[in-house]
Amino acid sequence: MATEVQVEADPAEAGFDGARLRRIDRHFARYVDDGLLPGFLAVVSRHGRIVHVASHGARDVEAGAPVETDTIWRIFSMSKPITSVAAMTFAEEGLIDLTDPIARWLPEFAEPRVYVKGSALDPVTEPATEPIRLWHLLTHTAGLTYGFHHTHPVDARYRAAGYEGGTPPGLDLAGCSRAWAGFPLVFQPGSEWNYSVATDVLGRLVEVLAGTPLDEALAERVFGPLGMSDTGFHTEDRERLAALYVPDPKTKQIVRNDMFGATGTKRPDSFSGGGGLVSTAADYHRFTQMLLRRGELDGVRVLSPHTVDLMTANHLPGNVDLESYGRPLFTEMPYDGFGFGLGFSVLLDAAKAKTLSTPGEYAWGGAASTAFWVDPDEDLTVAFYTQLLPSSSYPIRHQLRQLVYQALVD
What we know:
The protein is of the alpha+beta class. It has a domain at 97-210. The protein is 29% helix and 18% strand. It has helices spanning 18-33, 79-92, 134-139, 153-160, 173-182, 198-210, 214-226, 281-292, 305-311, 322-325, 350-353, 396-405, and strands at 39-46, 49-60, 65-66, 72-76, 113-118, 123-127, 245-247, 254-256, 277-280, 296-297, 300-301, 338-340, 345-347, 362-365, 371-375, 380-385. An eight-stranded antiparallel beta sheet has the order 3-2-1-16-15-14-13-12, with helices on both faces. It has a two-stranded antiparallel sheet with strand order 4-9. The chain is globular, with a radius of gyration of 20 Å.
């Protein structure tokens, strides 16, 4: 399978103004030239063919190594849609249902308790009024959290146990799942939305359903069928793996961060289905094309069309957006005008979101400022790759939408 992305069709044939598309190149090149990004790669596809590839800068500034079309990137939370797809393959086989309590397979979640009040050291809790179900994990409504949120006493419990920017050394995913089950939930399951380790727990559920470690399960159900040969929880090809950077707090200039950059360089102790994968633009392009084609690519079907339609519908009760149902914390997408499906954000109202796009667009991004979206109405996919933590540093995703849709002229 090809490891590089290349233009496959004239932009005009796909309804784009080529000169306007090149605004993407110029805009983000300024980020690089100003020292705010190390480098980037953007891919725009319509009607199943790539119409624009933009790149500039370095995958490793210190080594003078340029961004290449086969560069390997840490995709962090862009792992979540992949793990979600894998989980739904088991639902399609009748092995699990969206409403099933996960404790049937993960007994550590048999009696969850919910935070009511008190400190991180001495919280008052109450029993959950209903079990955590599969759909709660897929929609981040289980009541789980992330240690890096720094807004709730339960977040502090996660951090104290070693769950802030990763997981404790030597602990596998089964051990992590048991630890997370031992923390109080921040709300009753299904009552709110909170970005969380839910997809990591989902990855553990996939392991149990598959009877294999998560890396093998994803290879069998997603990577192998789609020919995603460069995607996994680490890569041996260190030369192609981009270095990771953070902005200097004072100057905003990029600073190399090899501590976080160690992600993807060796086999991890715990496979993070929520944030542990590395991939290439070519591999993730195949994943998005499978989604756009409603579950099938090159004659290989991963999911049924109906399953993809269900996953990319808004599952927040009452069809509300994240602003109405979510907690005002960090996430990889805005809250206004966006709902959430089974592993994806879903655009409900472009005017409320103040963005150029089409209702029904589904998307997600990663902590190192990577992002993708799929627009079924326009038969469009877009992906952006760089390696800058955190993704909230600059409005890259909003600007990319603006630049793509202003070039779509048919």
